[in-house]
Amino acid sequence: MQTRMLGNGKLEVSAIGLGCMGMSEFYGPADDEQSTAVIHRALDLGVNFLDTADMYGPFVNEELVGRAIAGRRDEVVLATKFGNSRGPGGERLGIRGDAEYVRQCADASLRRLGVDHIDLYYQHRVDDKVPIEETWGALGELVAAGKVRHLGISEASPATIRRAHAVHPITALQSEWSLWSRDIEDEIVPTARELGIGIVPYSPLGRGFLTGEITTVDDLAPDDFRRQSPRFAGANFERNLELVARVRELAGAKGCTPGQLALAWLLHQGGDVAPIPGTRRIERLEENVAAAEVQLSAAELERIEEAAPAGAAAGERYADMSVIGR
Fold this sequence. Notes:
alpha/beta, 37% helix, 15% strand
């Protein structure tokens, strides 16, 4: 597996990581045994960059990842997040970034993961009621205490990124980025690169849409959160199928799958980009990993740009976009 350097060369990760969110929530029933097998296979393939968060499950995804890496901790660059507050019954309690909450969350994540440090700790969403300087001051204390090695931020605006970075260096920015979510290219990616911040795209396969495997909403489990996503609804769904058809045509000409083409396109956006596609299936994991070997020429990248230009996807990313990009 190729590797990428994040944060001005401070953190080395596999070029393709593994997002673990869907193993516990959002994409239908969980199967911990199967998910553990996927994590083990990922490590065997050299995928060392595992991504989780306290809110996934809630809480149980960190426990799953912790059990799966027990005995193999030295093979893993472990990333988790705080900021989306949830209750034990899954109820959503809002966004918090106050210093005391930061400290509580870090200690709780360490316990659930069964580790003595977190390699990359993200602020999952920005709390607009708390100065970012307070949140990042507390995060800097966690680094000084040895509980956290590197810090990241997710779905933040350029101004917020700059303010946080001034308190403590940001190693990685995690935001949605794919052939159907290209919003960050205008201002956020240039800001990250100016500051030497690595970029970790989540949902790099468009929540599975870019694989070409989803042709109707009926392909989704009854409790799949994508059923409430604007991009999976009505006329938006049909328009987005047209986008996927263009990607599939280009992938066929290249001799790879649509998902591999989408991941390869992201990897070709720069050596500071390390996407984290999620999956609960070994065969899909292996397909994603193989995308790192897909080489795209300048002409091929131009054809992809023509087929999936910025703004091509129909519909908002979330039903409620109010907490994005603060």
